[in-house]
UniProtKB/TrEMBL annotation:
Taxonomy of the source species: Bacteria, Pseudomonadati, Bacteroidota, Flavobacteriia, Flavobacteriales
This protein's name: Branched-chain-amino-acid aminotransferase
Keywords linked to the UniProt accession: Amino-acid biosynthesis, Aminotransferase, Branched-chain amino acid biosynthesis, Pyridoxal phosphate, Transferase
Similarity comment text for this entry: Belongs to the class-IV pyridoxal-phosphate-dependent aminotransferase family.
Function: Acts on leucine, isoleucine and valine.
The keyword Cytoplasm belongs to this UniProt entry's keyword annotation: no
MF GO annotations: L-isoleucine-2-oxoglutarate transaminase activity; L-leucine-2-oxoglutarate transaminase activity; L-valine-2-oxoglutarate transaminase activity
Organism of origin: Aquimarina brevivitae
Metabolic or biological pathway, per its Swiss-Prot or TrEMBL entry: Amino-acid biosynthesis; L-valine biosynthesis; L-valine from pyruvate: step 4/4; Amino-acid biosynthesis; L-isoleucine biosynthesis; L-isoleucine from 2-oxobutanoate: step 4/4; Amino-acid biosynthesis; L-leucine biosynthesis; L-leucine from 3-methyl-2-oxobutanoate: step 4/4
Amino acid sequence: MKNTTSQTVEIHKAKTSKIDQVDFENLTFGKIFTDHMFVCDYVDGKWQTPKITPYGPMSFDPSARVFHYGQAVFEGMKAYKDDNGDVFLFRPDENYNRINKSAERLAMPEFPEHYFFEGLTTLLQLDNDWIKPGYGNSLYIRPFVIATQPSVSASEANEYRFIIICSPAQAYYSGDVSVLIEEKYSRSANGGFGYAKAAGNYAGQFYPTKLAKEKGYQQIIWTDANTHEYLEEAGTMNVFFRIGDKLITAPVSDRILDGVTRKSLIALAEKQGYDIEVRPIKVEEIIAAAKNGNLNEIFGAGTAAVISPVKAFGYKGEHYELPKQDNPYAAHFKKALMDIQYNKAEDTFGWRYKV
Ligand code: COI
C-alpha cells in the first residue's frame, strides 16, 4: 500500500515499529535493523522509481547472478545525532562516489545522485527515532547493490537492486585490537579490485582472519601480494603507524580502499601540523621500530571501527606489544573526528551534511 511520496521516492510505511524491543545500551554491531529500507531496481536499462518499504526479507531467483558470481558492492556510512536532535551524515558524497566507482569496476550501472541523497535522507527522517544522541551512538548505514538477473551465464547482469538498510550501532570493537601481519594470503593484486568495496574482497579475508583468530589475533594486516614486504590495510579498516612522533599510512592504490575516515584523518593531521607521511611502509621498518622501542602506536581507521587502537601484533611467530601512551594520537584523532561528526566542533572542512 502506497502511503506518501517524497519528490522521487514512494513511501510505504511500516504498520508497527520494533523500536521498543531494542536494548540501545547493549547493541551487537550489525544485528538489528530499523523499521524501513530503501529499494530501487534496475530493469530495462534504467533505475525504476525508488521505494521505501518496511524492513523485511526479499525473495530472489536462485539463479540471480549475485549468488554465483558475487556481483555485489556496498558502502558503510553513519548518521549522528547532536544534543539538539539534529541529524548529520559525514562526507556522504564520498560514499556516493565510491559506490559508483566500485560498481563500475564490477560492470554494474551507476546509481543516480538524486535517488541516493533523497532516498537516504527520507529513510533517515522516517527512522529518526532509531538514531540515539550521545558520543559513540550512531546509525550505521549500509547501501549495497546486487545483481538480481536470473541466469547463471557468466557475464554482467542486466538487472540489479540497490538497497539501503540501517542498524543502530555503538563500538565495532569492544576494546583495543590485536592484529597479525599476513605473510601468505593476499587481499588484492595490481589490476584487481582491492580499491572497490566489493563483497568478494571481504569474503576472501574470512579464512585468513579465522586462522589469525586461532592464533589469538582479531584481525589481519594485509601485505602486498607480490612480496608481502609492504603493509597495506587491515580487514575492516585502513591502518596508521606512529614511529616516534611521525604518523605513516600507506598510499591508496588499486589494491587499497580509499577510506573516508583515513582521508579525513590525514587532512586533520596535516591541518593540525602533525608530521604525517603517506608512503609505502615496509614490515621490516615496523619490526625495527618495535624492537628499538620507537613504535609508539598502530591504529585502524574506518567508518564502523572509527579509530581503533592496536594493542599488539604478530609477525613470523613473534608477538609484539605496543607501549601504553599518555596522550595517544589515536584518542586525539578519534575525538577530533567525532567532535565534527557530532556537531560539537566547527566544521572547517565542510564535511557535515545535515539531514
Ligand atoms: C565500514 O567500516 O563501514 C566497513 O564497511 C567495514 C565493514 C567490514 C564493517
